[in-house]
Amino acid sequence: xxxxxxxxxxxxxxxxxVILSFVASLVATIAWFKSANAIIPDTAASWKRLARxxxxxxxxxxxxxxxxxxxxxxxxxxxxxxxxxxxxxALSAKYLFSCIWEAQEGSFLLWTIWHCxxxxxxxxRAGKWEAPVMTVISFAQVxxxxxxxxxxxxxxxxxxxxxxxxxxLETMQNAPIFSRPDYLSIPMMQDGQGLNQLLQNYWMVIHxxxxxxxxxxxxxxxxxxxxxxxxxxxxxxxKIALPWTLFSAGILGLGxxxxxxxxxxxxxxxxxxxxxxxxNASLVPWLVMVAGLHTQLVYNATGHSLRATYLFFIVSFFxxxxxxxxxxxxxxxxSSVHAFVENDMNFQLISLMVVFxxxxxxxxxVRYKAIPHIVKEESTYSREFWMFIGALVLFLAAMVIxxxxxxxxxxxxxxxxxxxxxxxxxxxxxxxxxxVAVVLGILTAAGQYLRYKDTPRGVFxxxxxxxxxxxxxxxxxxxxxxxxxxxxxxxxxxxxxxxAIFASVYxxxxxxxxxxxxxxxxxxxxxxxxxxxxxxxxLLGILISxxxxxxxxxxxxxxxxxDPKSKQDPMENLTLxxxxxxxxGNYWATYEHNDSTxxxxxxxxxxxxxxxxxxxxxxxxxxxxxxxxKGQEGFxxxxxxxxxxxxxxxxxxxxxxxxxxxxxTAQFKKYIVKQKDTIFYSGGYMILNKVSINPTDTRHHIKxxxxxxxxxxxxxxxxxxxxxxxPAIYWKGADSRFIFDTIFAQNLAIGFTSVxxxxxxxxxxxxxxxxxxxxxxxxAYEFPQINLLWLGTVxxxxxxxxxxxxxxxxxxxxxxxxxxxxxxxES
Amino acid sequence: MKKTHIxxxxxxxxxxxxxxxxxxxxxxxxxxxxxxxxxxxxVRLIAKxxxxxxxxxxxxKDPNYMSFTAIDTLGNTTRVIFRNxxxxxxxxxxxxxxxxxxxxxxxxxxxxxxxxxxxxKDDPNVMKKNLTITN
Lengths: 827, 135
What we know:
CATH superfamily of the domain at 28-116 in chain B: Nucleic acid-binding proteins
Strand content of chain B: 25-35%
Structural class of chain B: alpha+beta
Number of helices of chain B: 3
Helix content of chain A: 40-55%
Oligomer: heterodimer
Number of strands of chain B: 7
């Protein structure tokens, strides 16, 4: 059948380029392998030329695939699955890239592209290491290309072709609409399913490329380590690969924290980190990469720890592959909110891990004895000893997190059990990692004052003593006056938090001081201290903002609670009736209106006005609801925050009734009543039981000199259901405020609006409407000192950059000074 | 024995102790019937909303109280109390993981994980349904 209006050419080109990239990377791998193993220089050079050409072709093919996907998505060619499934016409142009990341194929492609970029740099910079290093990277490209190749070998499908048409999907084979040649004219095919609403955030445009650059870059230290083992040049690479290790650790760290910023801004679990498996999967390779960075530094300075360095780089890269398996195989199913869907690629994903891990470990095992190491052990007063301990702690922390993340899904799969995460999964991580933070904070500071090999005792005590004292005083001030009082998990955990606060303050003070005491303010050489200082700030920000996170929207019972048990639980949602100023702890909160005018009506903003009771400061926040995509009805909520230098006010709308567009035309009716008088309404009647002044049993908090008058009404509905309403007037001096009560089940709003002195009655206003007064349920948190975390991240990444620059210069001068010697050897 | 080895052993022992205690704290996925047998114990109930029963949530009255009936794959049902705001799109969820404990015949839910059709995921069945509706 000939279908009308399909554009098949881009897809055919695209798939051709996918296959080309596979073939070219295969050729490049073989050629570089031959070159690396060649004995005769001419043979090596000719294989290398072939490999470079093949790799260049591969890079061109991969970029072309990316450009074609972007073309399909941006020109709305909805006959393609990619466009139909991940984009829509209403999507604003800035999110077109996010559409590409949203799918598995696109994120594999992103990974491949970064390998291309890194490979291109290595091709011209790696010198004699080019052939073995690029063999590894090119082999990774072969593996990644199979993920998007979409070919069948017999019945086995390999990879997902990103250029599949909607009608070619397996699940669509029998869909009736594809029996029509003009199926593209059907409304359902005229627009796509859209981008997941939660990905419609600017962080989602930039965070995945950075994170994937981080993932991709872990292959470089790995490739150097493999090259070292393979060519039996165990030591030659450690200095020239150091800038790559720094690059990888810096970028991966930045990518992880950008993900945290996205979670903080657009997810509503109320924080930047939830120990979600997908988050852990990116953290764990980073921890091991940083461990490897430190042992690599130790080796370069002292000759110790080379074996550990090899192991850490192998494990770090393996963990990237393992995290790919965890997040894409669907094995996480019930334990993660943002893993990809289960697909039939599990075998392929497991193979990806095996083809790298098994040869790497065999090579490491076989050559282990040959790797140089120093028998004499490190002095306790040496920097390398404590750096190694720190690296070990990082590595073990990573292992523990990996185990906690992946134990239950894998165990369940293998043993057929139904185990799940502990009751409080976050605490299961926190109670361990808080001690890791203590150790790391102290080591980052104290370690700086130790010299490599050995440190004279007097010098160490003299230089390290003062920062320790300052840190101790500062952290005690924070502990005593900072109001950190996190009782949820008992005194032991609170103690650990205070200990960790000390460690992080020490990390900050110790490293700041070292830049002047130890390095005389030479910032160019202070990369390590800068990064450690940033890390200390991050720890402090994490500790304070998490331990002091405060729920502002505590429901202190202004509205009726019918369930007595409900008071036992944290009541974190507060109802705000439109236009009614409501008490919210230290703030007054008023829900003003909502606005859905912009963005095709896909986002509804709720304007909430806040007034600080103490300072009188007023501001408005606009938490919003984003319309769901992909054929789902309804909305997802999206928070809004107000940022101060020392805290964030974080809010979102957890429920609202204003989305239905029925106008509320009902009016309040006034009644003057005395005690025991009856008011009739359409659904029943109500009796005024009593009017009390400043009653003691009220939920309202009455301040001295203020007056509260409460009308107590018993309501009997026609179906003989009984309700109670307690509208009130609150006088604060001459100002009065009406506290309306609502009986939602009866669609009643009841106000107590004045006391009539002439008739000795009171004025009660009743509104019946088929549409109750608009309201929202608001959740509001305060995160103190969250900016320390973001500031710390920036400083840490800056530290990596400073270090990278210095180590790059050193590695280059090393290469230059060695060149004549090498030339001599070769001739 | 070298210092490094001692530290290594201590740290590995600590890590193993931590992991063993972690494994002891694990919870389990349950059905309604098996959750009833473990009354009072924190479990994860896999079920979905029973749409034939009312979902009670009245944010104007109490935004922190929600109650509904959950039905598992075996057809057993239980009333669920969730003392929090009703998640957006709750009714459209296809599957729920309810974390909490069975108490006095009803399930006291502490938090829940919703699996909505194609939320975060590209569920082919939903796509197919969407396409079939057009005919």
